[in-house]
């Protein structure tokens, strides 16, 4: 006769050994996992962030110069080809990696190939370097914005303390004598007031720090810090301004430029195809198009979390 523990409830199944029916009726353990990774709040936050990555200062002040110097409208052919077969696939690959792994630029490589984790460190270092000169340019723009509140724009005349005898003002004049030594008021404002290059004898003597530019740069880095303070939670809100306001300003400038006398002659001269540029030896248009296509995707960034992240829980 078997002995039964009186303290055990009648009809209960012990955990040792299989039961008479051959099934374990203990409930499976419930595993809960808290996903603390960043998610986009809205689809528009993600879309505007991607637009902000793809369209930056390089597309505004670098692309027109590159296009004009390399054949005008003819340059658009290699540029579009490089964008289709180079830029877009690489950008889509970043979105796919961000959607699948949802992790940072460094830690993502342990899921792909750990030996390549140095690429993640390189992305972070290059992004740091790029942020230096991009934010410096924005600091210059902030200084220009501050200077524009004067009664007379300082870069439109030659009556300022930093101007030289070579300064030649051609605003509102029909007959202007221009020599090889002539400088425009805008050029002297940039070189002698903003940068104060004339106070430096060369790279060995870079001169002192301009406190005005240092203050502008500090304000820019402060804005960047608070924009990224809580990851995509805050940056997703900031891009509503940073990704839309430039298009509004560019549209206003487009309307203003298109209504100026001779505007369309300038556009035709700018975009007139120069097919011989495509056949020149040396650095070809394809190389320059490829360089600008990759440059327009800087600063390097970690794989961008894709749309599905905003609904993942």
Question: Can you put this structure into words, describing what you see?
Answer:
One of its GO terms (molecular function) is metal ion binding. InterPro entries: Na/ntran_symport (IPR000175), SNS_sf (IPR037272). Belongs to the sodium:neurotransmitter symporter (SNF) (TC 2.A.22) family. Disulfide bonds join 158-167. Residues 1-25 have a biased composition (Polar residues). With 313 residues, the chain is mainly α. It has one domain. The protein has helices at 43-54, 57-69, 76-101, 109-112, 117-147, 185-194, 211-227, 232-242, 245-258, 263-271, 285-295. Helix 2 packs antiparallel against helix 11 and helix 3 (76-101) runs parallel beside helix 11 (285-295). The longest helix is centred in the middle third of the chain and has 31 residues, at 117-147.
What is the radius of gyration computed over CA atoms, rounded to a whole number of angstroms? 30 Å
- Give the overall pLDDT as a whole number: 75
The ordered string of helix (H) and strand (E) elements is: HHHHHHHHHHH
Query: Could you estimate the helical fraction of the residues in percent?
Result: 40-55%
- SS element count, helices: 11
Strand count, sense and closure of the main sheet? none
The total tally of domains equals 1
The helix/strand class is: mainly alpha
Short description:
With 313 residues, the chain is mainly alpha-helical.
